[in-house]
Amino acid sequence: MSGGVDSAVAAARMLDAGHEVVGVHLALSRSAKTLREGARGCCTIEDAGDARRVADRLGIPFYVWDMAGAFQRDVIDDFVAEYEAGRTPNPCLRCNEKIKFAALLDKALALGFDAVATGHYAQVVEGTAGRELHRAVDEGKDQSYVLGVLDADQLARSFFPLGDTTKPQIREEAAARGFAVAKKPDSHDICFIADGNTRGWLTERLGERPGEIVDEVSGEVVGAHQGSYGFTVGQRRGLGLERSSLDGSPRFVTGVDARDNRVFIGTSDLLGVRHVVGQSARWCGPAPSGEVRVGAQLRAHGEEIPATARVEACDGGEGQGGESRLVVDLDEPVRGVAPGQSVVLYDGTRVVGSATIATTAR
Questions:
Q1: Burial, 115: exposed, middle or buried (Cβ in 10 Å; 0-12, 13-18, 19+)?
Q2: 226 and 322 fall within a common domain
Q3: Is residue 130 part of a domain?
Q4: Residue 224 and residue 210: Cα distance in Å, rounded?
Q5: Is the CB of residue 136 less than 8 Å from the CB of residue 143?
Q6: How far, CA to CA in Å, does 255 sit from each of 147, 251, 262, 270, 338?
Q7: Is the pLDDT of residue 111 over 70?
Q8: What is the pTM of this model?
Q9: Residue 248 sits in which domain range?
Q10: Set 43, 92, 95, 284: catalytic member
Q11: What is the distance between the alpha carbons of residues 126 and 290, in angstroms, rounded to a whole number?
């Protein structure tokens, strides 16, 4: 129970369904702030209090579980390391994979509970081969993308009671139940960067590392930066360049070379990606066999693109180990796809699985 409206209604619905429900708020910060800043951030002392008041109204036990250490190690430290290596991670997927449906679920099972229920907008459907993860009915709120890291065993012990309802309906239900959080703003952006300034937050931790901004086509040095970790493929704003000196056309980040601390820029025609290779694949059910037609989504609120996917054995190259890799060929180019992001595969509304993008090609 995050202290928001979604997890409040999720708890109420699980109780209505006849389950024995215990509310748990995760303390993910070693020095939690007292108040939220509007819709930014989460896991504040105020949020814990909101969750407790909902639990009291429902008449269920409520606990705060300290997972700050695991969150620091598996989410925040991973986030910093990925940006430092020139990649663009999605911390929400990592949190679901390592915290909510791993550390939290493991602790719950050890204490004798059967499952974890959350306020995510997704649906679990009983299929012929077991439980399946599907998109929510509210397309605008669908969160199946950030749940694409769950495997079959985790799905078997997960409930998403809100997947068949739209967000306005959830707020109406919360108000009808008398929850004070009915109109509370949704949290967004990265929860541990409350002011939304990712580059500034990373600079505090990694320090300034001056380097060159290079035109990808000409090879000319056209500017300077204070750390390649502050850039991601597809980025247009914050380049610090005078457009007039670059023929007046807008420029975008086309690549980040962390080893040489260089940022490459180019025109929009250089951004389209048609080929993606992913590693560390996770499957929500059986892994696909052979070449399959799928829908591929490459960012949390991105469009689903028709694609062909296949699983291949790795050649043992750098960073690959001996594991397999997922190869995805997109029917149409997608702009701004960066290594470190995740590709999530769909068969209709069903989530097939996901992988972390290692390389891309145009």
A1: middle
A2: no
A3: no
A4: 7
A5: yes
A6: 27, 12, 9, 10, 8
A7: yes
A8: 0.89
A9: 208-269
A10: 95
A11: 25
pLDDT at 196: 81
* Residue spans of alpha helices (H) in the chain: 5-16, 45-58, 68-71, 77-84, 91-95, 104-110, 152-155, 167-176, 198-206
Q: In the numeric block, which tokens belong to residue 303? A: 């469009």
Q: Is 314 a catalytic residue?
A: no
List pLDDT tens digits, range 203-262: 999 999 999 999 999 999 999 999 999 999 999 988 888 765 577 788 899 999 999 999
95 is an active site residue: yes
> Residue 189: what pLDDT?
67
* pLDDT in the model for residue 167: 95
> What are the structure tokens assigned to 346, written together?
């769909």
147 annotated binding-site participant: no
Q: Do 199 and 214 sit in the same domain of this protein? A: no
State the amino acid at position 298 in one-letter form.
L
Looking only at the bridges linking them, the beta strands covering 211-215 and 262-266 are parallel
Do residues 183 and 216 both lie within one domain? no
Phi, psi of 228 (to 5 degrees): -65, -20
**Considering 43, 92, 191, 284, which one is annotated as catalytic?**
191
Is 26 flagged in the annotation as binding?
yes
Local confidence band at 39 (pLDDT 50, 70, 90 cut-offs)? very low
- Structure confidence at residue 37 as a pLDDT band (50, 70, 90): low
pLDDT for the residue 35 = 47
CATH of the domain at 353: 2.40.30.10
Q: How many domains does the chain have?
A: 3
**302 and 281 co-located in one domain:** yes
